[in-house]
Here is the input.
Amino acid sequence: MIEFTVYRKDGVITGFCSQGHAGYGEQGTDIICAAVSVLVTNTVNSIDLLTEDLIEEVEQEDGFLRCRFPEGLSAKGGLLMDSLLLGLRQIAGITDAEGDKPFLRLTIEEE
Here is the structure.
């Protein structure tokens, strides 16, 4: 399962961490992992290129990506994160054939 955690401080998003694999399909053909990867990577790149927001501590490995926004996010950055979370919530609603195993869990942690 992919664990996606959003970090907030006083209601302001300060970063996120995505880790794990969905287990929907075999590695390299897992469309759930691919969808999450595209959404997350595109959001980080969009915040970097389309806003003035500061991104720190970007760490990326197989099945893992974490980044921090030490100064919070601008209105543009916040909108991009809202879009990411919308997509992830839709993916989080997908379960296995029996309907009991989700492939993604989304949590929000206050710091």
The chain has a mean pLDDT of 93.
